[in-house]
Design a protein that fits this description.
With 188 residues, the protein is mainly alpha-helical. It has three domains: 51 residues, no CATH class; 55 residues, no CATH class; 78 residues, Homeodomain-like (Arc Repressor Mutant, subunit A, Orthogonal Bundle). Helices cover 63% and strands 0% of the residues. The chain has ten helices and no strands. The relative contact order is 0.07.
């Protein structure tokens, strides 16, 4: 529950049931009242209408927190997060031993934290390339890669394409507005 839409859905559901809560952050909300099993069931049903769910399992909650911290770090990274070793950042942010979190994550998700990070970084890189506001060197720096070559190798390993080939395909799919609806011979 990182997006504003998700937060809004949760706030509306809590308000609908007259429940008070502490501020919503990183996929977590603390309800101030004790609620019955029936109220919990109804609240969960309301949240499921929007694709959300209540989680009671501490392991599942920690997994969601790990995912949310990773996604937040990748999309809202700062110079501080770029320079910090991610295992230290995650441990500090969630107040758990990294080895414990890494083992739990692998066991439950069937992939490593590192792979989860790489996949999300590559998706963010694609997004930045499509926006076309930064060149590949700036993207590599922004995403914390030691070099463009490191970014390119990881990008190709995940997507099967080099960043330049991906960008070329993106540009090939787009047509200039003035060419839309005209044959190639009509435009000079």
């Amino acid at each position: 529950m990182v997006s504003n839409r998700c937060k809004m859905v949760v706030k509306e559901a809590l308000k609908k049931f007259g429940l008070h809560y502490t501020p919503i952050d990183l996929g977590e909300v603390e309800i101030m009242e004790n609620i019955s099993d029936e109220e919990r069931f109804l609240l969960n049903a309301e949240l499921q209408k929007s694709g959300l769910e209540l989680m009671d399992d501490k392991r599942a909650i920690l997994i969601e927190k790990i995912k949310n911290v990773i996604i937040d770090m990748i999309h809202n990274n700062t110079e501080e997060t770029i320079k910090t070793k991610f295992s230290c950042f995650l441990s500090e942010k969630l107040n758990h031993d990294y080895t414990y979190m890494a083992n739990l994550f692998s066991e439950v998700q069937g992939t490593t934290i590192e792979q989860f990070i790489i996949i999300h970084k590559i998706e963010r890189i694609k997004e930045l390339m499509i926006y076309d506001e930064l060149n590949i060197t700036e993207i590599a720096w922004k995403m914390g890669y030691s070099s463009v070559a490191h970014l390119s190798n990881q990008f190709k390993k995940v997507t099967g394409l080099s960043p330049s080939h991906f960008k070329h395909l993106k540009e090939k799919r787009r047509s200039p507005i003035e060419k839309i609806g005209h044959s190639e011979n009509e435009i000079s």
